[in-house]
Design a protein that fits this description.
single chain, 476 residues, alpha+beta, six-stranded mixed sheet, six-stranded antiparallel sheet, 19 strands
Length: 476
């Protein structure tokens, strides 16, 4: 069988090859969706991001993925993507680049690694992959008599792609600045009369500029007008943060390295975990899923017993599928984590695991009065943080005039519970667990208050001469 009938589709996206020539990192769901040429392709690709319509899926260490997608006809569509290019080919008649099948294949790869068999490509995919890599090798050949080394050529090509994308993001940021200036000139109070259309149009332009992070923030602005009384104030606050992100990107060359990395992440540029891995006994603090349309984001919070470090694992599921990564809350795993760059360096990638998973008690906590200062310190590294993880010790959930709060059992201080938590059944679990007494609670502290995720049974026992908390209770 020959290669797919449609020619190479060059993808104007990140996914750069490894400068060292090693295996290419798997793309995230957000990076794949940023490739979509329009909203219709994004929706259609998301529907194909599940294993159901696919067969014969596989991948190789150099970054190629392939598969057969069942369509309306008797013959499945043959789709192959070289993420190191990046480029793709598909036998479907679509004139969109990339087509929905290429998007679906990459989304499946991003959310379900087990669906792909590592090894040699199928015959129909091998022909296209070999031809493409042969052409790439010829372009990178040295002068006659020299050694054949593709590393420098790959590095230069990756740098050029990154520069082109940075130029597109800069153009999008400049257009967004004009939109914000027009918004303020016309007055925020009149924004609700224009509906969501202008915001969706602006968000689409940010997607075209390959800045999905900016696009997501613009869509959030469009939803504020319907968020209830006081929305003009909230809209002004979010516009200010978006303006700060815009100007930070435009002046990123003058920023400290860590803050510049945070800005790149916030606008939506792809980043990879880097640096030496950190091995520790990691306590699984909480795990919860957040739906975003047809995409599901799973967050797993960990605490290092020896390093005292808090880490966040992110994984994604497409087309309503739950992400594959899961860890038992309340257990401790002996594992290596590799951090991502950026302010705070919370996000990490789970590496090799050693030994068995064991149960454990709660992590050390801080007093409720100290939590706002912890959040304030984190804001210096990332001004766009909505919240920061903290563990509070000896707090009691009590009702207040405006809802609920967690009060310090030993001092005259309290934190309001975030509005998002008030409608969840987890709040009543926390109240029942406390029974009017102090508990240890893990959650996030932010400008909206404290959002509890997990709590430990206050009943304590003796183990090895020390007190340990009881079982953990998920509050999400």
């Amino acid at each position: 069988m020959g290669p797919p009938t449609v020619g190479d589709m060059q993808l104007s996206h990140g996914g750069e090859p490894s400068p060292t020539g090693g295996p290419v990192a798997r793309w995230s769901v957000e990076q794949v969706l940023a490739l979509a040429p329009d909203e219709a392709s994004r929706r259609a690709g998301t529907r194909l991001g599940a294993a159901g319509p696919w067969s014969g899926t596989g991948c190789d260490a150099a970054g190629a993925v392939w598969g057969l997608c069942k369509g309306s006809g008797s013959t499945p569509y043959r789709t192959v993507v070289d993420t190191a290019g990046p480029a793709c080919s598909c036998s479907c008649p679509s004139r969109k680049f990339p087509c929905k099948h290429a998007l679906g294949l990459l989304l499946l790869r991003a959310s379900d690694d087990a669906a792909f068999r590592p090894g040699e490509p199928a015959d129909w995919a091998a022909a296209w992959i070999e031809d493409r890599r042969a052409r790439a090798a010829r372009k990178g050949e040295p002068a006659a008599g020299g050694d054949s080394t593709r590393g420098p050529a790959d590095t230069a090509a990756a740098r050029k792609r990154a520069e082109r994308r940075a130029e597109r993001v800069t153009g999008g940021a400049q257009k967004l600045e004009q939109r914000l200036a027009d918004l303020l000139r016309g007055g925020l109070a009149a924004t609700d009369r224009s509906g969501h259309g202008p915001w969706e149009e602006t968000a689409a332009r940010m997607v075209d500029a390959q800045a999905p992070g900016l696009a997501a923030r613009v869509r959030e602005l469009g939803a504020i007008t319907g968020s209830g009384p006081g929305w003009p104030v909230r809209l002004l606050e979010e516009c200010g943060l978006l303006h700060l992100l815009d100007t930070a990107w435009l002046g990123r060359d003058r920023l400290p390295d860590a803050l510049a990395a945070t800005v790149r992440t916030r606008v939506g540029l792809p980043v990879s975990a880097e640096g030496p891995p950190v091995r520790d006994h990691w306590l699984v603090l909480a795990q919860y899923d957040t739906p975003d349309g047809r995409i599901v984001t799973r967050r797993i919070w960990l605490y290092g017993r020896e390093t005292g470090r808090t880490a966040l694992l992110l994984s994604f599921g497409a087309a309503g599928r739950s992400p594959a990564q899961a860890l038992p809350v309340g257990a401790t795993i002996d594992a290596e984590l590799t951090p991502y760059p950026g302010g705070g360096r919370l996000r990490a990638e789970l590496g090799e695991q050693f030994g068995a998973i064991a149960p454990a008690g709660p992590p050390p906590g801080i007093a409720a009065a100290a939590a706002p200062a912890v959040y304030g310190t984190a804001l210096r590294d990332d001004p766009w943080l909505d919240a920061w993880p903290v563990t509070l010790r000896d707090v009691i959930p009590v009702p207040s005039k405006d809802g609920w709060q967690v009060a310090d059992a030993h001092a005259d201080s309290a934190l309001p519970i975030a509005p998002a938590a008030l409608s969840r059944p987890g709040l009543w679990k926390l109240v029942a667990l406390s029974g009017g007494g102090p508990v240890t609670v893990f959650g996030e502290i932010g400008h909206r208050g404290f959002d509890p995720f997990a709590a430990w049974d206050p009943d304590e026992g003796e183990e090895g001469g020390r007190t340990t908390g009881g079982p953990v209770v998920q509050l999400l």
